[in-house]
Amino acid sequence: MLLAWSAALAASSQSLQELDTAAAPPPPPPAPRPMTIGETLRAAFYGNPDLLNQNDALLSARIAERGVASLYLPQVTPFFDTLRVQGSGVRAQQYGATASQQFSFGPLIQGSAIVTHAPSDSTDPRYAAGYSLSLSQPLLGGADPAVTGEPLREARRDVDTQSRSLEILRRRTVILIYQLYLGLARQEEAARLASDRMERARRLAQFSEARFLAGSVSRLDVLRAEQQQASAEVDFNDARNLADDLRDQLRRAAGLAAEFDFTILPPVELPGPEPEIDAALSDVDLRRPEAVEAQEQVRDSRFAVRIARSLELPSLDGVLSYEAAGTGQSVGDALPVRQSAFLFGFRSRYGLNHSALYAQRREAEVTLATRERNYRLLEEDLARDVKRAYRRLDAERRNEAIASENLKTAELQARVAKLRFEKGLSDNFNVVDADNLWNSARLLELDSRINILLAQLDCLYASGAIDIVPFLQQQ
Q1: Distance (Å) of CA 439 to CA 190, 208, 228, 237, 316
Q2: Rounded CA gap, 154 and 439, in Å?
Q3: Under a CB-based contact definition with an 8 Å cutoff, are residues 138 and 317 in contact?
Q4: Fewest CB atoms within 10 Å of the CB: 166, 203, 357, 437?
Q5: pTM for the whole thing?
Q6: Cα–Cα dist 351/147, whole Å
Q7: Hey, CA dihedral for 15, 17, 18, 22, is it positive or negative?
Q8: What is the sign of the dihedral through the CA atoms of 404, 409, 415 and 418?
Q9: Residues 143, 280: Cα–Cα separation, whole Å
Q10: pLDDT digit string, tens, across residues 112-155
Q11: Cα–Cα separations (whole angstroms), residue 155 to 129, 130, 309, 428
């Protein structure tokens, strides 16, 4: 009996513990992590998928360059062949090595050392050694060093192109992060303003209802206040929705996890001022990677014209060679040179159909003219882009001054209208109208402050004066 009572008491205690555990509230979610603009930029430069892809493209270009450069190093190929002798089942053997060296400025050196092992029943010496070494140099067609060294030059150009593309993308990533970060800050502030407006509209609706019950205002005042409250709620929902969209876009641009929760600390200024417009216009084509790449493309076309003109000439190669041979009944007997000769001559080939080479040259000349014209246009476009950016910055600064004064006037107007309504000197139409103007003035002032930062950033980018290091060193 006592044992049964103890077991029941233990079971009851365990049930109470389980009930207490089940009734315990879940732990609160972790607080969002504050992310400054500097931390967001550093995260983007580490995890932005577009930057990662461009880094991979640059790495591939560097690997390809090393592969092409290896073709201009000495190439040595050992080999071993077994040859069947016609009419018999025995085989002859050949082994040795071939070597070549292609210089990037034109000459080609080729050499070989071959030992032939004849069958044992052959009447000839069992071993024969042959040596050859030749030097060839184009004298007319292809004599321009640019022809031979073009593959290596193109590989290096590809590395430079990918490096500039990476630099362009890094600069654009700074702009993208700032646009998303400040856009998120704008929407969060707009949501806060909408929340304040909702609270004012709620108090106005309550006060209007009380005045209506007292018989001092009409039903229209109550409906107007309720409509104002509904409008504020719509603005609040829209601002929160846009803020969530921008937060997702910022996560993607910064390479953050999709579930990463964070808050932002909006910056009040950029890490460096924009240059004066005269300095911004001076040598802008040397500071913008796009312009430097366009200059290099013009240089590529000039090389293409040089190569096409060189290949259009008749082919004529000068060849200097050394031939030697030795024979014997053993490898040691065959290796010493017993016969040798120096040879010098010319080698030429020229197709009767000249149209393909002519078309290649004309195409290269047309491409050169096109790229030179596009580069001149790009220079003018860059100057126009700089002027546009500085005009926008000047306009935004003027707008900010206007918005600040307008905000003071709108706030005063809203207070006066509210005071008149509370004293019964007017209906709430002026209160609603003044409150809407005040809300618009607050948004205008908010937009003008953010637009100034974006315009300054646009000036830095357009002038090519943007330095990424100070942006990444921000707290």
Answers
A1: 9, 20, 12, 16, 83
A2: 59
A3: yes
A4: 203
A5: 0.85
A6: 19
A7: positive
A8: negative
A9: 44
A10: 999 988 776 666 677 888 999 999 999 888 888 899 999 999 99
A11: 40, 37, 22, 74
